[in-house]
Amino acid sequence: MALEALGVAANVAGLIELGLSVCHGLWEYYRSWKDAESDVKKMYAEIESLTKTFAVLKSTLGRPCLDKGIIQRIEEIVGMCEDGIICLHKKLQKIRDTSPTAGRLGTKFKTHLQRALYPFKESTVVKLKEISRELQDHLVLALTILQV
Fold first, then answer.
1. Distance between CA atoms of 110 and 116, rounded to whole angstroms?
2. Do 46 and 140 touch, CB atoms closer than 8 A?
3. Which of 15, 65, 80, 105 has the fewest CB atoms below 10 angstroms from its CB?
4. How far apart are alpha carbons 100 and 116 in whole angstroms?
């Protein structure tokens, strides 16, 4: 009788452990899916800000009256951005190569498909935000040197 009780207790403990594991996995999946829109909006804002910073830097460097020492320092800072820019370019190429076209799939279906696949792409979104933020930090330094 004691052995049967021990077996039942071990079985219950195993089921509880399995239940916790399964529920945690499902929770992680749906939590990630639920945040897809918010994460993408944050990434978009980072990239939009980075785009505007590049535009300001480009127009400012076009001025004829800049000191050569300042231009050289700006070139060094932008050079520090090269790896990040190349990484963003590779991500863009990958997105373009794998994105279904709107002509083949309806927009609504495409949105649902992207949301369903989001947990598998969440790391990509996080990485894009990270790279954008790093580039932004470098470019803000360049703009500070230019006193823009």
1. 10
2. no
3. 65
4. 14
